[in-house]
Amino acid sequence: MSYTPNLLLKNVKPVGGEFDGSDIVDIRITGGEIAEIGNDLNPQENEQEHDAEGAYLSGGWMDMHVHLREPGYEHKETIETGCAAAAFGGFTEVACMPNTNPAIDTRDVVEFIKKKAEDLPVEVHPIGCVSKERKGKSIAEMGDMKGGGAVAFSDDGDPVYNAQLMRVALEYSSMLEMPIINHEENLKLSRPGHMHEGKASARLGIDGTPGIAEEVMIARDILLAEFTGGHIHVAHISTAKAVDLVRQAKADGINVTTEVCPHHFDLTDEEIERRDFDTNVKMHPPLRSQEDVDAMIEGLADGTIDAICTDHAPHAIQEKEVEFIYAPNGIIGLETAWSVSVRQLLDSGVLELGELLTKVVEKPREILNLEIPKIEEGAKANLTLFNVDEQWTFDKEKVHSKSANSPYLGDQMKGRAEAIYNKERFVVNEI
Length: 431
Fold this sequence. Notes:
Layout: E1 2-3, E2 7-16, E3 19-20, E4 25-30, E5 33-38, E6 48-51, E7 56-59, E8 61-66, H1 79-89, E9 91-96, H2 107-117, E10 123-126, H3 142-148, H4 163-176, E11 180-182, H5 187-190, E12 195-196, H6 199-204, E13 208-209, H7 212-228, E14 232-234, H8 240-251, E15 256-260, H9 270-274, H10 290-302, E16 307-308, H11 317-320, H12 337-346, H13 353-360, H14 363-368, E17 383-393, E18 412-422, E19 425-428
Parallel strand pairs: 2-6, 2-7, 8-9, 9-10, 11-14, 12-13, 14-15, 15-16
Antiparallel strand pairs: 1-19, 2-3, 2-4, 4-5, 7-17, 17-18, 18-19
């Protein structure tokens, strides 16, 4: 990483705005802003030059659902290491979930996180708690946290289980114009499940979590959003019926949005047996059936699913190297999200390149009411340089997270982020 207020990017193919990826241009960045877009631009004094050799350039990618673990769980991840993983994955901005210790339930914790990240190339947007200490009993200081820089509210890791509390939260959501992001899970139906309830769980003899545990809560929250006028955002959607519920709610004009993780449109519950109970395929929501995976892809294609996120959830090696039923849920995902998306969505023809980029550039920021980066003269330079065809292996040397709990470790990948530029910092990813 280098502090680079002045940069000349040579031979890039911009995608976004007036550009469709077919033109090769040079882009001059001066003082952190796009100063000039043209051809055959020459470097000026005190200007770093980088030849992109025909790589694509888009607005900086955003992951609206990550766990940076700090404060309180720095043995899993820190803000610095999580942002390093984000930069390698092509993300210039992330929104971090509040299941930390202390939880992000007051303005001072929001400001602590913002302060810790201010000198990093990746912008960190804290998500505040819905309830105090994430205990689901009383509403947190939502307005004050917004003043400190929170962009949304969630008790993620646990659902907002109390319907009256969710009603109040959504009423605040309407007043503050900020989304409530809920981990959709009916605990009475889901526990003590360790994987998706289906043929695979029955065959393996493992307690399963049925899809209806997710769907019942989504249905409740859609109705509450309709009643209050608040904005409900469904976190890490994973079942076919859940997608149908969101699709119908959108058709009815209810203020609901949703996101999906790459592992939920790529892997199924069959991976648990195939990988001999590898705990790196244990997450929550769990990997579902092929029917559910197909529904995620269909939802992305028709616009029901707004955004792609990772739910990046680091765990230390000693926490994951236990029997399957005792392992914590979650995997890292920042470094591999683009490659999985290229394989499953772009190469398959489900989405065009511009459509895929919308899911990681525009939609997350629209949901969180953040500025969308543009590729035009005079705009703040917030950019991701990437390709869609480079072959590379995701080995341990490519893991920038403090943890390495990934089902993709050792896999051959296609397409990667080559560099990011944000906050006057230029990060080139070496592999």
